């Protein structure tokens, strides 16, 4: 149960992280945002990132073995990285229509999935 809760919280955390880190690149297409300076964009992104932490911190505490969770620290980090890439890829393909998913991206993701396999192997 703690493992699934950790993964769910990491997914939500990464949705907010992706919006904070890359969502502002689409602000130029939104009415009223074109005239904002970099400081305003940073503040908006920082506000979005706050919600990332609301999910990320509990995910790590619930999932970490030393707090009764099922994952080592290394397992948590690798899991988070793969979730980040999945969320980022979906976001990129849905929001940035000019981006494409190529064979080398797929090959790289396979390597990351293999990394998860080896990290979790006993």
**What are the segments in which pLDDT stays under 50 over at least 5 consecutive residues?**
none
Q: What's the tally of helices?
A: 4
| Overall pLDDT | 90
Shape: flat
- How much of the sequence is in beta strands? under 5%
Alpha-carbon distance between the two ends: 20 Å
Number of strands: 0
Secondary structure class reads mainly alpha
Radius of gyration: 17 Å
Percent of residues in helices: over 70%
Count of domains:
1
The main pleated sheet reads as: none
How are helices and strands ordered from N to C? HHHH
Account of the protein in words:
The radius of gyration is 17 Å and the shape is flat. α1 runs antiparallel to α2 (38-63). The protein has one domain (2-120). The mean pLDDT is 90. The longest helix is centred in the middle third of the chain and has 26 residues, at 38-63. The protein contains four helices and no strands. It starts with a helix and ends with a helix. The relative contact order is 0.15. It has 122 residues and is mainly alpha-helical.
Detail the topology: elements first, then pairings.
Blueprint: H1 2-22, H2 38-63, H3 73-95, H4 103-120
Helix pairs in contact: 1-2, 1-3, 3-4
Keywords: Membrane, Transmembrane, Transmembrane helix
Pfam families: DMT_6
Protein name: DMT family protein
